[in-house]
Amino acid sequence: MHDKTLTELAAALSAGEFSSRELTEHLLARIERHDGALNSFITVTAEQALAAADAADAARARGEAGPLPGLPLALKDIFCTRGVKTSCGSRMLDNFTAPYDAGVVEKLADAGTVSLGKTNMDEFAMGSSNENSFFGPVKNPWDLGAVPGGSSGGSAAAVAAGLVPAALGTDTGGSIRQPAAFCGITGLKPTYGRVSRYGMIAYASSLDQAGPMARSAADCAHLLGVLAGHDLRDSTSVARGVPDYAADLDAPLSGLKIGLPREYFGDGLSPEVEGAVREAVKVYESLGASVREVSLPHTHYAIPAYYVIAPAEASSNLSRYDGVRFGHRCEDPADLMDLYKRTRAEGFGEEVKRRILIGTHTLSEGFFDAYYKKAQKVRRLIRQDFLDAFDEVDVLMGPASPTPAFDLGAKKDPVSMYLQDIYTIAINLAGIPGISVPAGFANGRPVGLQILGTHFAEARLLNVAHQFQQATDWHLRRPALAEETA
Amino acid sequence: MQWETVIGLEVHVQLATRSKIFSGASTAFGAEPNTQACAVDLGLPGVLPVLNEQAVAMAVQFGLGIHAEIPEVSVFDRKNYFYPDLPKGYQTSQMYHPIVGPGEVEITLEDGSTKAVRVHHAHLEEDAGKSLHEDFHGMTGIDLNRAGTPLLEIVSEPDMRSAKEAAAYLKAIHSIVTYLGISDGNMAEGSMRCDVNVSVRPRGETTFGTRAEIKNVNSFRFVERAIEYEVERQIELLEAGGEVVQETRLYDPEADETRSMRTKEEANDYRYFPCPDLLPVVLDQAYVDHLRDNLPELPAAKRARFQDELGLSAYDAGVLSASRAMAEYFERVKAVCGDAKQAANWVQGELSGALNREGLAIADSPVSADQLGELIARVKDDTISGKAAKQVFQALWHGEGESADAIIETKGLKQVTDTGAIEAMIDQVIADSPAQVAQYRDAEPEKRGKMIGYFVGQVMKASRGTANPQQVNALLKEKLDALC
What we know:
Strand order of the largest sheet of chain B: 5-6-9-1-10-11-12-13
Helix content of chain A: 25-40%
Order of helices and strands of chain A: HHEHEHEHEHEEHEHEHHHHEHHEEHH
CATH topology of chain A: Amidase signature (AS) enzymes
Strand content of chain B: 15-25%
Radius of gyration of chain B: 31 Å
Number of strands of chain B: 15
Strand order of the largest sheet of chain A: 1-3-2-4-6-5-10-11-9-7-8
Shape of chain B: elongated
Structural class of chain A: alpha/beta
GO biological process, one term (chain B): translation
CATH class of chain A: Alpha Beta
Family (chain B): Belongs to the GatB/GatE family. GatB subfamily.
Number of strands of chain A: 11
Enzyme class (chain B): ligase
Strand content of chain A: 5-15%
Largest sheet of chain A: 11 strands, mixed
Number of helices of chain A: 16
Shape of chain A: globular
Helix content of chain B: 40-55%
Mean pLDDT of chain B: 92
EC number (chain B): 6.3.5.-
Keywords (chain A): ATP-binding, Ligase, Nucleotide-binding, Protein biosynthesis, Transferase
Low-confidence stretches of chain A: none
Oligomer: heterodimer
Number of domains of chain B: 3
């Protein structure tokens, strides 16, 4: 059962090959058996999952099933779930049980899905390796000595390991696409505003976006159809109709114009990754696409601009964790200042503190214009780079990450970690959608091909990704862990 | 040395929206602590603000009311600081692009003269909760019911030159916001609070002195007293060769003094930046025009109209336009009775006297404007005498009848104007008073005028006050003189 895609599982469930309860029990057993090594879940909600599976089976029997009836999935622990611990990978929220469901959690439940639990992540979504979690690092199912990527590392690893067919992630600077690439799965970051952020714990509000992580582009299309849409509770969500993302998956690619950004194939790109990406592009050519080189001239400003804007927003977003109303509170505070200082010193990890400090500094009087305002100007230039490129081509392609998954503990210096996101970060600054699809291996570790489109071009991206997956089988490769039958 | 005082005010007006500025929780005052704070107000992880359209409309109405520029785009910013009653660790406010641009408020001084005070801008923001320091045995309680209540902060230019001007400005703002119905203006419940910036400089000097900011003053009287104290303090300091320190001070009404809270060096760096959770507010011209077209007449315009069109004195016009409730009451009375001056006299005389005696607001008057208008109309059409009218008013006040007419009817106060009936009463009185008639007849003609009073009194008594006194007087004179 666990080797099937969501689409296949949906067919098997409706054909009565097995029930949602049987599927859920099987996956819960796999989590029990394998997650000790992977650490991809922070909280497994077995009881609620079985109840939801029974409800889905009953609804199916009555002929009232939703669009994704009885299909199991997992939620990154950044989404608020009523009555379930929502930690955001932090000690600060280790004791926090959300009193409400995030908008996307409601939508997934209404669609009939069964949540198996909350997946591990870098603390407050800050990280590219999932080593910044209070609950310990997640291991890459392809190689337990390697990182799964981050910050949605738990979601990526759980899907790759066959613990769950799909999971929800969030992407602020690459946090869906890079772990998807590292773990050999498909991950889509939608256009900013496409999916509601209500109930998704904020890291950098103007960049955060939730999206699906699954085994195929088709699965992502079905999930996005459920996730997308306007939410009155999120003023930045866009009031725009939701197309049937699965409708055009099979559209032929002849005439597709692909741009390869020159800046995405430069220094620092591993030759193995570059080789895999160029092979993938050849596949597209064989499908009738034309390829040309394009330029995104402000690319090298993306990381500096991001590391001004995201920490600035984060420093403000994380001010609410003060020990007054919820979350961690230090023991026996002497006075108010002591309460604040020790609560936050104890509750936050090192990387979170680093970004709060950076953000506090860049917003300070005398620095605001030089950092924050300048970064916003750069952001507009980066966005314009993409819009100009999309005047010439339909999609852009390149690597999702300069290297395949690196070893646990390999990147000690924060800046070298930040450079991991060199190909993903500009996409968030521009607000455009991007998808990472498996495109081969480098030294036995998966490589991701990143495909980018203009704002709200998700249907096109999914079609382009799906066609690749019809022509190749990289997305069907499974780590040994997932090949086991139990 | 002659000193000049320079004052600028930041007035926080709580807007009378039903729900909070960024959440659906109620804004009603006085509920049990923390019962009117939802997930958004508590700043729970993952929540997002959604702007209350009513608050935007009210802010724009205020802007239009002070003839301010209304920028097409305004933006919410975050003001970052830690405080236990500030749930998110930042206040959502408007720093760089406020919703209301420069405008002007006309104030009326005690001598009846007017002065324009410029408003720098007004912006929308959310209120914080309250820290409760009593009843927690050394700990502090937090009540977040008020957190997220919409505030309009109105920032004046440093245009005021005395405590009286500052108080007059505050009253003018109070009058405008209550006229517009955008705030209940209840200062005791904190619906209007102000921060006062005060400095002094030698008269003739054009640069400003160093200012002190007095925080959170919440009554007209305290504003005056706080400024008076602060001005005196600064002048004494300067005359003793000292310097005024730029700082935040607190006014203590009990001690009637201001005390230092924090100096500039201790001031927070609020790290303002645009709130990424809220889109810029874009107002299209049609929306602004619609609000402008539906704006009620504001106090300054009303005062001018009362003077120019109704012929009221500057004083009467000022009193009757001071509050929307007062102006509406007066205008209704005037409409019913058809006489602005009589309406003004009654509202300011008999009615205000009775209200003051019982400590009632005009909105709670037991005598409605319709009732009072009808009562005045009955005096004007000679149905009752002025004296009887006061009786009718008292009866209305005590709820003894539904209307002036009903009371006139039941109490038999209708003035008798039938000449025949009055003549009959006069004849009777003359017949019953031979001695007085004889005195009258024997008196010098120039003294008779005074003596007629006795007869008038007798006739009025006989008519139980219902005879028209002018008529009685004229007829008596005619009949008595015929006897001479």
